[in-house]
Amino acid sequence: QDAAPKVLTAVVFLALAYVGIRAILFVVRGVLDGLYPEEQDLVVELGVAVAGVFLWFGAALALLNIVGMTEVAASLGTATGFVALGVSYALSNMIADTVAGVYLLRDPDFNPGDRVKSDPVTGTVSSIELRKTRFESDEGDTVVVANRDVEKKWTKYDAPAAEDASTADAT
Questions:
Q1: Which of 135, 118, 117 is nearest to 126 (CA)?
Q2: 44, exposed or middle or buried, with CB in 10 Å at 0-12, 13-18, 19+?
Q3: pTM of this prediction?
Q4: Cα(71)–Cα(73) distance, integer angstroms
Q5: What region, left, alpha or beta, does residue 113 occupy, with left being phi > 0 and alpha being psi -120 to 50 degrees?
Q6: CA 115, CA 158: separation in Å to the nearest integer?
Q7: CA 35, CA 29: separation in Å to the nearest integer?
Q8: What confidence category does residue 165 fall into, taking pLDDT thresholds of 50, 70 and 90?
Q9: Among the four 50, 77, 130, 145, which has the fewest Cβ within 10 Å?
Q10: Which CATH architecture has domain 109-170?
């Protein structure tokens, strides 16, 4: 007798949560699409996926409360917090690379084709990805460097100045 209203409330909540989360993710995607150019679509997809996970997890905890499983919801929320803390610690370097990659992708002074000196290499930026940057060294080798290491310190060389310096060394 007590279960029917809870089940009906849960079904209505799930329908509203589905519509609400879809609407929120649509807005998040629109905002991120406006912030990032089309070639950085991976950043947009990552942002939408993270937002979706948090929203659905919150909806699941609310659903457990609605059906009367408040202790389970509280325990699950607490346990998930501890698991998230452990995972974030374990993935801290990957997270640092990703955050640095977003900054590098947004930096107008750091682009593929630029001649750059970053700690382990001096060369031309081949590609900038979320977690790593590829350089073509002066020796012609491809060098892959973690974005957290590149973002710490890099120097951009002007192409004409670099050519003038190499010409001056040759004479």
A1: 135
A2: buried
A3: 0.57
A4: 5
A5: left
A6: 7
A7: 10
A8: very low
A9: 50
A10: Roll (2.30)
Secondary structure element (H or E) that encloses residue 149, with its range: helix 147-152
Q: List the chain domain ranges.
A: 3-90, 109-170
* Structure tokens belonging to residue 153: 């310190």
Condensed to tens digits (0 to 9), the pLDDT of residues 133-150 reads 999 988 889 999 999 999
Q: How many residues does the chain have?
A: 171
| Helix or strand (DSSP H, E) at 121 | strand 121-128
Tokens of 143: 């060098």
Nearest to 150 by CA among 120, 108, 124: 120
Q: What is the CB-side half-sphere exposure of residue 23 using CA atoms within 13 A? A: 6
Spell out a b/e string for 108-146, using b for 16 or more CB atoms within 10 Å of the CB, else e.
Answer: eebeeebbbebeebbbbbeebebbbbbbbeeeeeebebb
